[in-house]
Design brief:
It is a single chain. The chain has 474 residues and is mainly α. The protein has a domain at 44-242 and 351-467. It is built from 21 helices and two strands. Strands 1-2 form a two-stranded antiparallel ribbon. The longest helix has 29 residues, at 246-274. The chain is globular. Residues 1-22 have low confidence and may be disordered.
């Protein structure tokens, strides 16, 4: 005898089979929209605040200046948002845990400072002095040892690779190896952050605030109170000033759409075979089509000449957009398709419950801090290029504020347990739109940037708190 699923669903029975069988039903577009509305009502707005922010700020600035929506300004906007987006992507991992990294901005400054000094001097040891060089070397060796102690073997290997770059001087002659050194330094800093928080039990707020002050001083040691220009290194200058070739833009889009389609259809098939809820073929096809059409329009638009003046054409997808998108895709896979990512969300929901279920809580938390600081180093490289060079104050000021605001506006909860890389990119664009639009209004004082940004962050934090309260009450 078989039981009809619809009868169980409509009968109001308490039979536990009812809820189980309903969960096996395929989802169409209508059901997907209803599920999204339920999540919003229960306190999970996702990227909705970022999308609303994009619309409101975009309409405001486009109505007050015709320059805002010009092709040239959109390119500049993406350059301004690139380093914010990269640092925000890393912060998302720590915020999901319910922690914070106040040193992320200056970590980027330290990493970029040593990379720039290494390239300019050709002899990092002589440029920074024996004391600073030996301290950097010993600090990285200690970080590698701590990573081995915590059984983070891949992390230890990356830090030791940075030690090798220091000892051989390879980062002093090759710009890509200098980038690698910067990322290795960021990873080492992440190990210290994570170990201090997990092993000593010091709140992440205190640990990273103390290291914020420390890395400010180390940045001065790295660049020696001067600004080290990076524009003469083509690979570095390309980060926020160059574009992909039109052909490479189309190839990248094809890889992105093809990879997403293969993953989506494979996941649909696997879930259907497993007898759990899955998206209908039409819904999955619609999502792939939206990505393909939307991405195609974006690539086509960027491949048009954006130079408003006579001279060489400026066309192609900016590297300032493609690199953050590439990281976003990788991190989305890590968070949604790996056990490590699921453990991260579990810990953010309840550390105690995660520990009792057998999750290596401390190891996962250290890994999140490592990713955060590693991405801060990447963001620092982009920031150095955008600002014209590695400076003593690189990564200070509003850098951290903007990155945290981007993550929160994108829907990452300050209380932990919720956040997605995709929404962090949307939040970064919202934050970058504020100074970008205000710069097009010469009559407005620069103080307006801080005032509006602060209000936007306050609104985002309020939305997060209200959403959290509704989720608990629901």
């Amino acid at each position: 005898m078989t039981t009809d699923t619809s009868d169980l669903a409509d009968s109001g029975t308490d039979d536990p089979r009812a809820s189980f069988r309903i969960d096996t039903l395929p989802r169409g577009l209508r059901t997907s929209v209803q599920d999204w509305a339920v999540r919003v009502r229960r306190g999970d707005p996702g990227g909705l605040p970022a999308i609303l922010g994009l619309l409101v700020i975009g309409v405001l600035f486009s109505a007050t200046t015709p320059l805002f929506l010009t092709a040239n300004n959109i390119g500049n906007l993406l350059s301004q948002a690139s380093f914010i987006a990269l640092i925000a992507l890393g912060l998302t991992f720590v915020l999901i845990l319910g922690d914070i990294d106040l040193s992320a901005g200056v970590t980027g400054g330290v990493a970029a400072g040593f990379a720039a000094q290494s390239l300019r001097s050709g002899d990092l040891h002589a440029a920074v002095g024996s004391g600073v060089y030996v301290a950097l070397l010993l600090g990285m060796l200690l970080a590698a040892g701590l990573a081995l102690w915590k059984k983070l073997y891949v992390v230890a290997g990356l830090v030791l690779a940075g030690v090798g770059l220091l000892l051989t001087g390879a980062s002093e002659t090759h710009v890509w190896l200098a980038f690698a050194l910067a990322v290795c330094i960021g990873i080492a800093i992440g190990v210290f952050n994570g170990v201090l928080v997990t092993s000593l039990g010091i709140p992440s707020f205190i640990v990273t605030l103390a290291l914020f002050l420390t890395w400010e001083g180390v940045t001065l040691d790295a660049v020696k109170s001067t600004s080290i220009g990076t524009s003469r290194y083509e690979a570095w200058f390309a980060m926020t000033h160059r574009n992909m070739s039109p052909a490479l833009g189309w190839v990248s889009l094809a890889v992105l759409v093809g990879g997403y389609a293969a993953t989506a259809f494979l996941r649909q098939r696997q879930r259907a075979r497993a007898g759990v809820s899955f998206d209908r073929l039409a819904l999955t096809s619609l999502r792939v089509a939206v990505l393909a059409v939307g991405g195609g329009l974006a690539v086509w638009w960027f491949n048009q000449n954006r130079n408003p003046n006579p001279g060489p054409a400026i066309k192609g997808v900016p590297w300032a957009a493609s690199v953050p998108i590439a990281f976003m895709v990788v991190f989305a896979i890590v968070l949604t398709r790996t056990s490590w990512g699921r453990h991260l969300y579990s810990i953010g929901g309840s550390k105690e419950a995660a520990s009792r279920s057998g999750i290596a809580v401390n190891r996962v938390r250290i890994g999140a801090f490592v990713i955060c600081s590693g991405m801060a180093a990447v963001g620092g490289l982009f920031l150095a290029d955008f600002s014209g060079g590695a400076q003593p104050a690189l990564g200070q000021g509003n850098t951290l504020l903007y990155a945290v605001a981007a993550a929160v506006i994108g829907g990452t909860s300050l209380f932990g347990g919720r956040g997605r890389p995709r929404d962090a990119l949307l939040g970064a664009i919202v934050i970058a739109m504020i100074p970008n639009g205000i710069q097009l209004h010469p009559g407005l004082p620069i103080s307006v940037v801080q005032e509006i940004t602060g209000l936007v962050l306050l609104i985002a934090a309020s939305v997060d708190a209200i959403s959290r309260r509704r989720a608990r009450s629901g």
